[in-house]
Write a structure and sequence with these properties.
about 260 residues, alpha/beta, about 10% strand, 8 strands, Rossmann fold, elongated
């Protein structure tokens, strides 16, 4: 495979390398149980219904847990509500489950591309990548909590390009979100691949009823802006499973190489 004009391929972490849903389910379990211990009378089913309503009525950047705590649990002390909403990082270790085949795909790409990560994650993500024997497969890793910029802020992409010396026009972003991954990357002139997977077929098995009910709620409404509103949002490639990525990158690579040859 001749990818002489591809500098870098950057990956997101959530729902590209690790499933996001187990961690999110744990965060919602923590939110609910923390408030319940303080006397909250809502059932978890009612909380999930509130979650869905909030996400239908508010933009994705509004934290639904914070809104629910303010509107449904205002009688509970503010410190407990803050703990329920924000104090979840202790749940992160062990809550990350790799997508089936992701390590094999990354191994397949090594040698043909330089590989990096641009992700909204806590610094603990580095330990999780190491634990799952994935970290060493990447040449450079940019984590939002460590660099101080969070997607969709284009500055996190610019920082990745600066640190790696990558050229936007010969770099590719692989992500699961139009709003956080595709749109800002395209703004800078990067190529993009959208992993639009069907979570109804994911291999992860919920470990308790809280996870099961959260995932059922997530399948009803994600709260993520995935609308393609125009050319600025349209990925260069759309894939449904991670094993389709090498072929998608090859097609993008061929286009970049052909364009470069017409200019020489």
């Amino acid at each position: 495979m001749n990818n002489k004009n591809i500098g870098w391929v950057f990956f997101d972490i959530g729902n590209v390398i690790f499933y996001d849903l187990p961690l999110l389910a744990g965060i919602w379990r923590h939110f609910y149980l923390t408030l319940k211990e303080a006397g909250w009378q809502e059932s978890f089913e009612q909380v999930m219904e509130c979650r869905e309503q909030v996400l239908r009525e508010h933009p994705p950047e509004d934290n639904p847990r914070r809104l629910i705590a303010m509107n449904q649990a205002a009688h509970i002390h503010e410190d407990i509500r803050r703990k329920a909403v924000d104090d979840w990082h202790h749940l992160y270790p062990g809550a990350n489950h790799p997508l089936p085949g992701i390590a094999k795909v990354i191994e397949q790409l090594r040698g043909s591309y330089r590989l990096g990560i641009i992700a909204n994650q806590p610094g603990l993500a580095l330990d999780e990548l190491e634990k799952h024997d994935i970290k060493h497969l990447f040449d450079h890793i940019i984590i939002s909590d460590l660099v101080g910029y969070h997607k969709p802020d284009v500055r996190i992409f610019q920082e990745a390009l600066r640190q790696t010396g990558a050229e936007p026009k010969t770099s590719i972003m692989v992500g699961d979100r139009i709003d956080n991954d595709i749109r800002p990357a395209k703004t800078l002139g990067m190529k993009t691949v959208w992993l639009d997977q069907d979570f109804r077929t994911m291999s992860y098995e919920p470990k308790d009823d809280y996870e099961r009910r959260y995932i059922q709620s997530y399948l009803k409404i994600t709260g993520i802006d995935q609308g393609i509103k125009g050319p600025q949002d349209r990925p260069d490639e759309i894939i449904q499973t991670i094993d389709q990525l090498p072929a998608a990158l090859s097609r993008i690579s061929a286009g970049i190489n052909a364009l470069a040859e017409t200019k020489t």
